[in-house]
Amino acid sequence: MKKKVVVLTGAGMSAESGIATFRGAGGLWGKYPVQQVASIEGYHQDPELVQNFYNERRRELMDVKPNKGHELLAKMEEDYDMTIITQNVDNLHERAGSNRIIHLHGELIKGCSSRNPYDPRFIVEIKPGEEIKMGDLAGDGSQLRPFIVWFGEAVPEIETALPYVREADYFVIIGTSMNVYPAAGLLHYVSYGTPIYVIDPNSVNVSDTKGMTHIHKGASQGVAELIELLRK
Ligand code: OAD
Q1: What pLDDT digit, counting tens, does each position of 137-187 carry?
Q2: Catalytic site includes residue 105
Q3: In the UniProt entry, which residues are flagged as the active site (predicted)?
Q4: Is the distance from the beta carbon of residue 19 to the nearest atom of ligand 1 less than 6 Å?
């Protein structure tokens, strides 16, 4: 039976593809106030501004492609039972060929009802480059909005992720500052004794417990090194 590798990814996973991270120098939240474009209150205050922000992010997807790190994670399926739990709303893991991907914070390429964001009947595909405009309606007659989990909203997919985390033989954290919950809290559900790998050029908000290996590299080089370490 293949060993189970569970990978939690964040914005740093896609940095080498040219998508900005959120925090730190050059981060998106330095340019756009997070409360305005990534909170449910911000959406209620100025829905058009928020729609435009995500229309822009969706357009950006057309100009980027998966990097070596995404590709290597997809290739690892040949040898491991892989689960990718991502905080990213891009579709680069999908495009690299990974098959089991849990999106904790939603997906740019989807739109949903503003009344019932998680009602699957009203989730529709929005192709990269297509826009959601004010006045576009979801199937329940409410305004169509981006299928993004904003601050102040529930994160239902955490329930889908938990059983995989508990059963992981290896847990890997790539390119996330581990500041946002409940995603960061997944670490606490890793079974005792499970080896944990962190791939990030910078330090992240986790206490360095025994059994944790920090690979201080970017995603592409870091995943290549991880594969070597797991082979040993
Ligand atoms: P952050 O911007 O907080 O963290 C990005 C991490 O990526 C940092 O630890 C960087 O050091 C690291 N990094 C930078 N370049 C890298 C590279 N080439 N390879 C690997 N790592 C690299 O982003 P997240 O932790 O993903 O939520 O942020 C979590 C959530 O906060 C996001 O999903 C978003 C945001 O607000 C919502 O919008 C709901």
Answers
A1: 999 999 999 999 999 999 999 999 999 999 999 999 999 999 999 999 999
A2: yes
A3: 105 (proton acceptor)
A4: no
Given the residues 44, 105, 188, 214, select the one marked as catalytic.
105
The minimum-distance atom of ligand 1 relative to the CA of 199 is 20
Which tokens sit at 163? 């059983």
Which band of pLDDT confidence, cut at 50, 70 and 90, is reported for residue 207?
Answer: confident
Residue 219 Cβ < 6 Å to ligand 1: yes
| SS3 assignment, position 69 | helix
Task: Report the chain's C-alpha Rg in angstroms.
Answer: 18
Is 122 within any annotated ligand binding site? Answer: no
Smallest CA separation from ligand 1 atom 33, residue: 87
Instruction: Choose between 32 and 100: higher pLDDT.
Output: 100
Q: What percent of the chain has pLDDT over 70?
A: 100
Can you list the domains of the chain with their CATH numbers? Answer: 1-19+66-105+154-232 (3.40.50.1220), 20-63+107-148 (3.30.1600.10)
Determine the pLDDT at residue 210: 67
| DSSP of 140-203 | TSSBEEEEE--BTS--THHHHHHHHHHT-SEEEEES--S-STTGGGGGGGSPTT--EEEE-SS-
Question: What residues form DSSP beta bridges with 85?
Answer: 8, 102
